[in-house]
Amino acid sequence: MQLIQETPDLSAYLAADEVVDHDRPVVRQTAARLAGQAENSYAYARLAFEFVRDTIPHSQDSGDPRVTWRASDVLEQGTGICYAKAHALAALLRAEDIPTALCYQRLLDDDGGTVVHGLVAVRFNGAWHRQDPRGNKPGVDARFSLDGERLAFPAGPKSNELDYPVLYAKPHPSVLAALQGASDRPHLWQTLPTAL
Q1: Which of 21, 109, 30, 108 is closest to 69 using CA atoms?
Q2: Sheet holding 100-108, edge to edge
Q3: All domains in the chain, ordered by first residue
Q4: Do 120 and 103 meet the contact criterion of CB atoms below 8 Å apart?
Q5: Pairing outcome for strands 4-5 and 100-108
Q6: Three-class SS of 127-139
Q7: Which of 101, 97, 159 is closest to 130 using CA atoms?
Q8: For the stretch 155-189, what's the b/e string if a residue is b when 16 or more beta carbons lie within 10 angstroms of its beta carbon?
Q9: Full-prediction pTM beyond 0.90?
């Protein structure tokens, strides 16, 4: 699949905003701590990915009812669903000048319908590489990779699943509206986007 930048301006994928708020102290401090352990930007990107994947539980897996959507809140509260975790990883990567996009899949849900799943794409060596910081669990083994995707959920085209090719500089409006409008995670589960 060919990934398509929403905007040709690469600086848009480094910008801070209300959601990917890498100008906030908690994001800067976390990024600085991780950068201190990395010998180069690739190693930093892998460490940031593993930090978000492994130390911030997916709220569905942990049973946490809180809904986070701003990257700094995800880091401070230590919880989030796939979209929120993608926002946190994007903020950590952009904080260290690694272009990072938000991207999405449409996957089957447990009820046979579809749901939009959030992940990121990082730019290294002139190419975009999708990464999924959702968090591993039995049956899910996502890994950081620039050599072939290791996503949590590879989309199966025969089952009406698909990978959206657009790389967004900001969260898709339907994703952000669902996160901001939810009183808690059970409510969010009723309003998750089913398609973009």
Answers
A1: 21
A2: 127-131, 114-124, 100-108, 162-163
A3: 4-191 (3.10.620.30)
A4: yes
A5: unpaired
A6: EEEEECCCCCECC
A7: 101
A8: beeeeebbbbeebbbbbbebbbebbeebeebeebe
A9: yes
Which pLDDT tens digit goes with each residue over 147-175?
A: 999 999 999 877 889 999 999 999 999 99
What element of type H or E holds 120? strand 114-124
- Give the position of tokens 């801070």: 16
Report which residue type is found at 38.
A
pLDDT digit string, tens, across residues 69-109? 999 999 999 999 999 999 999 999 999 999 999 999 999 98
Q: Which residue has the tokens 């089957």?
A: 108
Q: Contact at 8 Å (CB) between 119 and 6?
A: no
